[in-house]
Amino acid sequence: MCRVAFFSLSAELRTAAMAHNPPAKTLDPRRQELLIKKYKDEGSLVKSGNRFILKFLKIYTEHITLVRGHMAEVLHSIFFLGNINDVKIDPMEFFTDIVGEEIKKKFPEAFEKYDTHLPTRTPFSILLDAVVLIKGNQNQKDVMEYLSALLKELSVPKPKKATHSNYYTLEATVICMCHYERNGLKGLNPNPNFYGGSLSCKGLKERKVMIALSCLEPWTPAVAYAVAFADEGAYIKLPKDVISEAFQRDLKTDSYLEKAPCTNCITIFRGVSFKPCYTGNNKKELWPYGNCAETESLSKLLKADLTLRGQVEVHNKTGIVHLDLETHQIHSKATETLVEELPKGRFVVPSNVFQFFYS
Ligand SMILES: [Zn+2]
Hints:
This protein is α+β, with helices and mostly antiparallel strands. It has a domain at 176-181 and 192-280 and 287-343. Helix content is 47%, strand content 11%. The protein has 14 helices and 9 strands. The chain has helices at residues 3-6, 11-18, 29-62, 70-84, 97-106, 108-113, 123-135, 140-154, 204-216, 221-228, 263-268, 293-304, 306-311, 323-341, and strands spanning 174-180, 194-197, 235-237, 242-250, 255-259, 269-270, 273-275, 313-316, 319-320. It starts with a helix and ends in an 18-residue tail after the last helix.
């Protein structure tokens, strides 16, 4: 048994392993099967995390002037996911000792704050941001080709069958780009694209945590409100000149294929011109509101475009709402989720004010 996996085992399985007994001999077969499955999945996070970090380190080294703060953020985000994993993974478990010590010397903050500070985005979102900075936001094709090549090099284990859990590849299966189409604007890049990824973390708890912390930090209040109160009929209405295009990575060809929006997205982001357009039948989706790449992408667009932000209507089931009056509701709902889902003690400080990791 390798060292990395050994320290990732749950107490029950670890005890069995220390006694040099296969877990099968001390546990009932079903429990054993579940634990082994879990153990293998944990191994997948360690492996994926290791590959992701080393690959990103290469990008960081080659493009340091463009992505100066991104490396520490990637490390922190991965360590955070390891820390809230059912079977906790220590940061050093993602490395062999020597590599880990070298990286720790260079980026000590990520190793110090992974269990006290929250990330603002997933590792994939940080990677996507870096790729867009390197390739330029108008070069969609270049961005997607570069990403595809990168993800191929990461050689993450492919799922045996299509599944909504990402098998801890740390990869977002869908990316989205949107822009506000305005004619007559001058300049080199009058209608810039804004990119987003679907949530690239596994498990309901992890998704709930990432959605809640995104409502607190990176998402604009309008997007956060629509996501947080979608179940109660909230949505936002944008001009039809907001164009949103999504692409799903095809694992067989390592390329991106166009993807129509899901029912959740057309429910909470109204008025947007989606490409391709919605083809569903209003069926309930299996993933939570806010999970999709459209959320991050539209939020970035709204954050950057003050004029557009002024045109967004925020609705709940009774009509238009004044966002300024609702901000505290978004915060208290997100905070409640984080207090409930995060490990007790370190993240949750007095008066439930969370600290975020910035680099
Ligand atoms: Zn969607």
